[in-house]
C-alpha cells in the first residue's frame, strides 16, 4: 500500500517483526495483516497490528482471519476510534470488489466487521452459555464441580466418548481454541461461573 510519502511497499512481509519494521520504515496509509503469522503462528499478526496502533493511533488496520476469534475481534474494537479498524474472514477476501471496498472504508476511518463476526459477538453478548444445549450445560456444570470425563459419564449414564464429544462442542461454542493462552477446560468453567 502507498505510504504517506507516496512510495509503495514493494512486497508483502513474511512475519510479524518484518511487518512492524516495514510499517515504521514506510509509514503506510493502511496495514493489512493476517491474525496468524510467523514466528509463532498464533496471534502474532494481531499483536503486531496492536503494537503499530500503540505507536501510531491514526494507523488504519485491517485484520484477516481463517476463523472467528471473538477475543481478537473484541481486542481490535478496543483499540479506539482514532482510525479505521477491520476484521474479515479470509473466505470473504475472494470476493475482490467486497474486499477492495473494505480496504477503502477502513483506510477512510470506518470500522468494518465481517457479518458473521458481528453475529457471534452479539450472540456472546447475550450470554455465552445460551448457545449450549441443555446436556452441554449439564456437562459444564459437572466440569465446574471438578469432575473428570469418566465421572461425568457415570453420573449421566452415558459413555465417556459421549462426554468427550460434549466437552469438545462446549469448547468450540465458547470459542476456546488451542492457542497456548490457557487451559481450555479451566477457561470454560470460568465462563460458566461468570454467567
TrEMBL record:
One of its GO terms (molecular function) is DNA binding. SMART domains: HTH_LUXR. The modification 4-aspartylphosphate is found at residue 34. Residues 1-105 form the Response regulatory domain. InterPro entries: CheY-like_superfamily (IPR011006), NreC/VraR/RcsB-like_REC (IPR058245), Sig_transdc_resp-reg_C-effctor (IPR016032), Sig_transdc_resp-reg_receiver (IPR001789), Tscrpt_reg_LuxR_C (IPR000792), WalR-like (IPR039420). CDD domains: LuxR_C_like, REC_NarL-like. Pfam families: GerE, Response_reg. Residues 125-195 form the HTH luxR-type domain. PROSITE patterns: HTH_LUXR_2, RESPONSE_REGULATORY. Keywords: DNA-binding, Phosphoprotein, Transcription, Transcription regulation. GO terms for biological process: phosphorelay signal transduction system; regulation of DNA-templated transcription. This is Two component transcriptional regulator, LuxR family.
Amino acid at each position: 500500500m502507498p505510504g504517506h510519502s507516496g512510495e509503495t511497499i514493494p512486497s508483502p512481509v513474511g512475519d510479524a517483526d518484518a511487518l512492524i519494521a516495514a510499517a515504521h520504515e514506510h509509514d503506510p496509509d493502511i496495514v493489512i495483516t493476517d491474525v496468524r503469522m510467523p514466528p509463532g503462528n498464533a496471534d502474532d499478526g494481531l499483536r503486531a497490528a496492536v503494537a503499530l496502533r500503540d505507536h501510531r493511533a491514526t494507523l488504519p488496520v485491517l485484520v484477516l482471519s481463517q476463523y472467528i476469534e471473538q477475543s481478537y475481534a473484541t481486542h481490535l474494537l478496543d483499540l479506539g476510534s482514532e482510525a479505521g479498524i477491520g476484521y474479515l474472514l479470509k473466505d470473504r477476501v475472494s470476493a475482490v470488489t467486497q474486499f477492495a471496498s473494505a480496504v477503502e472504508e477502513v483506510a477512510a476511518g470506518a470500522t468494518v466487521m465481517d457479518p458473521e463476526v458481528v453475529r457471534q459477538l452479539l450472540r456472546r453478548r447475550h450470554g455465552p452459555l445460551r448457545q449450549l444445549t441443555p446436556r452441554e450445560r449439564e456437562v459444564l456444570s459437572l466440569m465446574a464441580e471438578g469432575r473428570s470425563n469418566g465421572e461425568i459419564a457415570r453420573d449421566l449414564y452415558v459413555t465417556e466418548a459421549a462426554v468427550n464429544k460434549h466437552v469438545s462442542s462446549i469448547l468450540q461454542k465458547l470459542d476456546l481454541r488451542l492457542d497456548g493462552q490457557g487451559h481450555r477446560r479451566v477457561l470454560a468453567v470460568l465462563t460458566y461461573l461468570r454467567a
